[in-house]
Amino acid sequence: MKNIFLIILSVLIFASCEREAAWPTDEGKLPYLVVEAMLTNETKNQEVILSLPVTSANNVPVMVSGADVRIIDGTTIYLFTEDTLNPGHYYSNDVFAGVPGHSYELALRFLPGGGWDGTDVMPPAELFSPLTLLLVNEADSLYKIASVCQNYDPSKFAMYEISLDWSGVPGYDTLENKAVLYYYTLGSLDMGEVLQTDLESVTFPKGTLIKERRYSISGPYAEWLREILIETQWNNGIIMAHPGNATSNMTQYINYADPDADRHNIAGFFCACSVVEWNGVAQ
To answer: What is the chain's alpha carbon radius of gyration, rounded to the nearest angstrom?
Structure first.
């Protein structure tokens, strides 16, 4: 089958209705833990989020407290402290930025399943051409995104996060007025393996504030995203099926009780990404 360039789009509309999405019961036991950890080249308090898996999208996840969280770059150890007002959210004690080309390790201890470790190498930041818009309703001055990733290079993997905010446009202050869209450039895929998406067409008025962020991502993270997106049916940003083959880069530190246990039975990925941001206005 023909291998072609793939950009996959997922859409999250704020204030949209939530639809129930149960995990299949035949996928084996649930992961020990869900980890959300993205280290960037931005100078800030970096964040790691830890929670327990849920069996339905309508369930509120139980956040995991009391963990020992640290990021190591080979010479420096960055310690994290849990936010007492926001359980399960851990922030670095020091403000720091990841450095492109460096390898980073996320080490988690005192957690379900014991301890977990994962590594990723931060790719260099890449300048990009901003998105383009298409006027779809001249009478109401409504736009939609026409294209993203004008300077596509199949050897460079990226995630584009596009934030739209038209809450300041007269007449839209009481309506649905924000959206976040994600585009992924993940190389070539056999389109016979890609599930069709079910996406809303997002339109927005003249004057909408646009923030486009390009995340340079590593090959392993791109592969993980590719597996997630291929195996997952999307519906308004809600995962409708549990991806069975997407393997996290987080590995169980040790399991004395069961040396043959699945040491990757964790959901999520620790990634190190370089970010470039562009801001504009729909006009």
So the answer is: 20
Q: Where are the domains of the chain?
A: 31-123+217-272, 130-213
The conformation of residue 193, written as its DSSP 8-state character, comes to G
| Residue range 221-253, pLDDT digits in tens | 999 988 887 766 544 444 444 455 578 999 987
- Report d(CA 5, CA 148) in Å as an integer: 13
Query: Over 197-232, what HEC string results?
Result: CECCCCCEECCCEEEEEEEECCHHHHHHHHHHHHHC
Token look-up 């994600």 returns 182
74-79 contacts, C-beta under 8 A, 24 or more apart = 74/102, 74/103, 78/46
DSSP letters spanning 155-182: TS-EEEEEEEE-TTSTT-TTS--EEEEE
Nearest to 167 by CA among 65, 57, 58, 15: 15
How many helical (H) and strand (E) elements, i.e. helices and strands, does the chain have? 1, 18
Q: How far apart are CA 185 and CA 225, in angstroms?
A: 10
Model pLDDT for residues 47-84, shown as the tens digit of each residue: 999 999 887 778 889 999 999 999 999 899 999 999 99
Instruction: Show the DSSP H helices in the chain as ranges.
Output: 219-231
Model's pTM, two decimal places?
0.82
- φ, ψ of residue 4 in degrees (nearest 5): -135, 165
Q: What is the average pLDDT value for the chain, to the nearest integer? A: 81
CB 123 within 8 A of CB 104: no
